Amino acid sequence: MPFMTLSKATLVLFAASLILLLTQHVKAHSYADCIDWRFKDPKKPSWSDKHGACFGYARRFPLKAKPFAKLDSDNPNRHYQQSHKNPDPNHSLPCSDGRQGEEPGADETMANPISAAYNGKDKHGRKTGVQTVSKAGEKLCIRWPAKNHAVPSEKNQPVTIALSKVNPKKDPTQLQFLDNIIAELNYKNCTDKSKDTDIWSCGDCFKLPTNLKPGNVVMQWRWKLNSNEFYTSCADIKIEPPSITAPTVDIPSKTTSTFHTPTSASSASSASSAPSTSQIPSSASSALSASPTSASASPIAFSV
């Protein structure tokens, strides 16, 4: 009987350990949660929902489907792990099609029109997020969940941000994305850390190139977990034309008047020829009664 008791205890311990390992495995994969994160207080940046809000998402990103960091258990799971074959991840599909890859993930292929991937509903009828709108040279901040990989014992593998050309007809290949990496972000840049290292909120910011033309560009978020293990998220960014500030031109007022003190000789003549106050409209009378300082008009600035 002692042997049987020991065997049951061992089996229970083994089963518990296996469940823990499987749980950790499920929670090990990250994805871009927000493409345009904005802090409530830029002086105290935080990636927590309490201290910021999202203004742009990845393609077909479900809103309020699950709590933050829990979409790796969604159906389908949000994270997409590129294939280790083809012959390697650098030749695999850059944006998930929901079918290929070590872990296919959610469909993030380009929509036609591009706007169809945003502000609508996914195949489960859930509302999807809006498209990111920005301008050349502006800063964007991207958020992602730590998924247990931001702890001190983990190697800090960077996130790369790559862009397509303006208005592509299809998604670039992975090699084309690799030719246009515009930023490397700090994966471990996390805030509001709790005991649950899986749900730490993390993110980082970068600036869009200043030479981007108006239109749509495809952005790829790509994170390397291990030597041959890459995860990606894809989004379209609408680049708006730059704001044009009109030059200010000073144009002298045509109503500027010069006041002179009349001589005694001219006073009588002026008095006889000038209309009485009662003959002058009230608005004009007010202007005449104004002091020389207030009546002298300064140049008026017009925006052209």
UniProtKB/TrEMBL annotation:
It comes from Linnemannia schmuckeri. Gene3D superfamilies: 2.70.50.70. Residues 1-28 form the signal peptide. Keywords: Signal. Residues 68-127, 245-304 are annotated as: Disordered. This is Chitin-binding type-4 domain-containing protein. Residues 252-304 have a biased composition (Low complexity).
